[in-house]
């Protein structure tokens, strides 16, 4: 977070937009968590260690679904393209072609990416 012209700006990593997690121009609500520390800000080496361990943990977890999986999901909303959007563990997004909000459907996962998976309905 940086101060610019009397306001504060929060930077969003480019990969979040490129991977479809968020879109420029859309409205988002964010929470800012603060903590007090008696020690000074981390040194460059400490930052590298924290960043490295966080990405190692993320890589080990990976997406909670695999291509070919069959799972039941509830469509929560519609995406910009009109496809259904469901969320599963850890808030992972599954885009369901033809899904409508409120539908609980059995889907087959066809394509898995780091932040999102694409699925087809196989049973209502």
Automatic annotation (TrEMBL):
The residue ranges flagged as biased composition, category Basic and acidic residues, are 43-59
Q: Where is the TRAM domain?
A: 64-123
Q: Per the record, which residues fall in region Disordered? A: 1-70
Query: What single Pfam family name could you report for this chain, choosing any that match?
Result: TRAM
Q: What is this protein called?
A: TRAM domain-containing protein
